[in-house]
Write a structure and sequence with these properties.
Length: 393
């Protein structure tokens, strides 16, 4: 129903089921990129001629749109980055450095593991990992035990697992962490694609956002920083547009958000991200949820009918993604055959090697949906999977 808004679907025969990796872009987002480069390409927050002013206005409009979209209390709390990876690295190498212990979940993307390893934090030595149960659910009892033993920690947890679609109860995680005077960053890479986020209701301290997974351009994302932290730490990188005064003797920084956005930003990307958020609002999360839930249930039902399929979690605690294998068949081989049939899924470890290791597997076949996917896409996938299986058995 919404495919008509996405030029990709008019130009490609591919059944696109790799939305966990990146989403397609609506026409309005693509147009905003062309318009910026063709009609008012100029740098922001520097020059004062007409096009530069327009670029700055449009850039700042996106900040306002995102502020309202996630219900931040001020636009100073919104920092544009190049994505969730940068947002997490940013906090890991600045504010979170001072914490003795960082607590993550078992289901983290490498982007929320490696930055901590790079600081010399390893398991039991500055890094703790919350167990998951046999259905990959977050083990709250273990989390509380870790918090009790390590109060005043930094908790950095994904909202939705990209590898399995597991959705964490982040409200409960944040509440419990705060009870033990800990500070929480949520990796929201997969969040805005599927569900409404209200940072004030969540009472989250830091929230990392990906633009390209939320129908926006690549190379753009954001970091929400709760107001009370804005003055507490310095940026991890500085440069043009971050300073108030500089002399050889020293520099003074501008207030947030500018002190955190060093150098020329991805101006077109930020403007396009604003358009993507407008598009999501136009469709509405109520619509998105209904469509996704129906197609997701259909996907699960149809996959369950295939012989020798292995799932690692139930769909009750997950959203939009289904990860699986077939007994004695390589997921890589399935991926190669599906590609030949124009079905785009991801096979492999999905940048989540630790949980794959824990499950004793090398990877899975992951089908990840967005609201533009329909029953026909699922039918094409199932038909192709059946063909692939018959070739490999
Ligand atoms: C859960 C999760 N965290 C982090 C990332 C990295 O996000 P980005 O591409 O915006 O840097 C991804 C991307 O796949 C992800 O799924």
């Amino acid at each position: 129903m919404f495919k008509k808004d996405f030029p990709f679907f008019a130009n490609s025969q591919t059944v696109y089921l790799d939305n966990g990796a990146t989403t397609q872009k609506p026409k309005s987002v693509i147009n905003s990129q062309i318009e910026y480069y063709e009609k008012y390409c100029a740098n922001t927050h520097r020059s004062s001629f007409g096009d530069a002013n327009k670029a700055t206005t449009k850039y700042e409009e996106s900040r306002k749109i995102l502020k309202e979209f996630i219900n931040a209390s001020s636009k100073e709390e919104i920092i544009f980055t190049k994505g969730v990876t940068e947002s997490i690295n940013f906090i890991a190498s600045s504010y979170a450095k001072k914490f003795k212990t960082v607590i993550i979940s078992s289901l983290e993307h490498h982007s929320n593991i490696v930055p901590w390893h790079m600081q010399g934090r390893t398991l039991g030595a500055g890094l703790e990992v919350v167990n998951c149960d046999e259905n990959l659910g977050f083990d709250f009892a273990h989390f509380e035990e870790l918090l009790k033993n390590n109060p005043k920690s930094f908790v950095s947890v994904t909202h939705i697992s990209n590898a399995f679609g597991i959705i964490h109860d982040i409200r409960r995680i944040i509440e419990l962490a705060h009870k033990y005077e800990s500070v929480v960053l949520i990796d929201g890479a997969q969040s805005l694609t599927h569900t409404h986020i209200d940072v004030q209701v969540l009472d989250v301290d830091f929230f990392a956002i990906s633009g390209h997974k939320s129908f926006g351009p690549t190379g753009v994302g954001a970091l929400y920083i709760k107001e009370k932290y804005l003055e507490e730490f310095d940026p991890y990188q500085t440069g043009g547009a971050t300073i108030d005064k500089v002399d050889y003797a020293g520099s003074t920084l501008l207030p947030s958000p500018y002190k955190f956005e060093a150098g020329t930003q991805n101006i077109a990307g930020v403007i396009g991200f604003g358009e993507a958020l407008k598009f999501i609002s136009h469709v509405g999360y109520a619509n998105i949820k209904t469509i996704e839930k129906d197609v997701y249930q259909y996907l699960d039902l149809k996959l369950s009918e295939l012989p020798n399929i292995i799932f690692y979690n139930k769909i009750e605690n997950s959203i939009a993604s289904r990860s699986f294998n077939f007994k004695n068949i390589s997921h890589d081989d399935i991926g190669i055959l599906l590609d030949k049939m124009n079905i785009a899924v991801r096979v492999g470890h999905h940048c989540a090697q630790p949980i794959m290791n824990k499950l004793g597997i090398k990877g899975t076949i992951r089908v990840s949906l967005a609201f533009y996917n329909d029953y026909k896409d699922v039918d094409r996938l199932i038909e192709s999977l059946k063909k692939a299986l018959s070739m490999l058995e």
